[in-house]
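Lecture notes, continued. The same structure-token format from the folding unit now serves as the input rather than the output. Read the line below as a description of shape only.
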């Protein structure tokens, strides 16, 4: 099926129906679906042209072991962002669920939240992103939370973690963030508000954005201008989910692996 052909509207509607999950986290599967889209795409390495969402490599134990579908993961991400009040992100289909296993990305290509600005650049430059794009992508941390049984970190970045906004950048600049060592030994940054009794958190990589001359310019811009953030996020998320994909004028993907080896014509 070509990128622009095919009726994905019915799939979008099905995704919308499953977002509402009263028993799960903050009542929505949206945040974790955005993270799924990001993890499916964020393995891309421009130099070796491996990783990325096409091929659905996460189905394999080497990358993830989660059986699903390459288009579905990325579409679920963009539908969830829109449903949570975020921008409409352009999306094209046509990814296959086949990847030559010699081209599966090794583990360890995704960022480590315990690290700093150098690490962010190392990870995101590899995918072909620049400093502005690193900051814009990080704005996804408006959504969802950390779970100590998954990453070791704990808590949420903003008060309403199922509403897409620029609140993450605003709080990053307006609040006092103090280092806290959790019971499991993991270090993160927290702000405790006595009036409401709520504690919000930031990862070391989030705080690193305020400690770097190039990054902080964009943090400041996105904190004061929500429209600028939405525009930048739209562009960069669309780029993320197209990493490693080339298309012809009709939107058909021209570089998928196929089971016979080589590429589709
Ligand atoms: Zn995240 N992310 N991420 N991220 N992320 C977590 C959760 C979520 C980093 C990271 O270490 C973590 C991007 C970039 C980066 C989302 C989206 C995107 C968690 C918590 C960690 C530790 C996991 C847990 O415990 O459940 C780091 C270091 C990043 C480098 C900048 C990008 C880019 C994203 C999308 C564009 C989302 C939506 C979540 C919340 C998931 C949930 O389950 O609520």
């Amino acid at each position: 099926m070509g990128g622009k052909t095919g009726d994905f509207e019915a799939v979008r509607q099905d995704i919308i129906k499953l977002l509402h999950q009263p028993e799960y986290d903050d009542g929505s599967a949206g945040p974790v679906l955005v993270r799924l889209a990001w993890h499916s795409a964020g393995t891309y390495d421009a130099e070796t042209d491996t990783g990325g969402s096409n091929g659905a490599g996460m189905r394999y134990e080497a990358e993830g072991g989660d059986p699903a579908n390459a288009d579905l993961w990325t579409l679920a991400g963009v539908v969830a962002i829109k449903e949570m009040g975020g921008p409409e992100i352009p999306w094209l289909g046509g990814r296959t669920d086949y990847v030559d296993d010699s081209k599966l990305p090794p583990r360890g290509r995704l960022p480590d939240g315990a690290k700093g600005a150098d690490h962010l650049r190392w990870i995101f430059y590899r995918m072909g992103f620049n400093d502005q794009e690193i900051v814009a992508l990080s704005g996804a941390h408006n959504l969802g939370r950390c779970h100590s049984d998954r990453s070791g970190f704990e808590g949420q970045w903003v008060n309403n973690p199922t509403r897409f906004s620029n609140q993450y950048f605003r709080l990053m600049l307006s609040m006092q963030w103090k280092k806290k060592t959790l019971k499991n030994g993991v270090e993160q940054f927290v702000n405790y508000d006595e009036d409401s009794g709520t504690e919000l958190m930031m990862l070391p990589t989030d705080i690193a954005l305020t400690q770097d001359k190039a990054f902080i310019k964009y943090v400041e811009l996105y904190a004061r201008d929500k429209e600028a953030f939405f525009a930048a996020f739209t562009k960069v998320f669309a780029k993320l989910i197209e990493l490693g994909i080339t298309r012809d004028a009709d939107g058909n993907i021209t570089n998928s692996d196929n089971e016979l080896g080589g590429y589709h014509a």
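Point for the exam: The CA atoms of residues 163 and 235 lie 19 Å apart.
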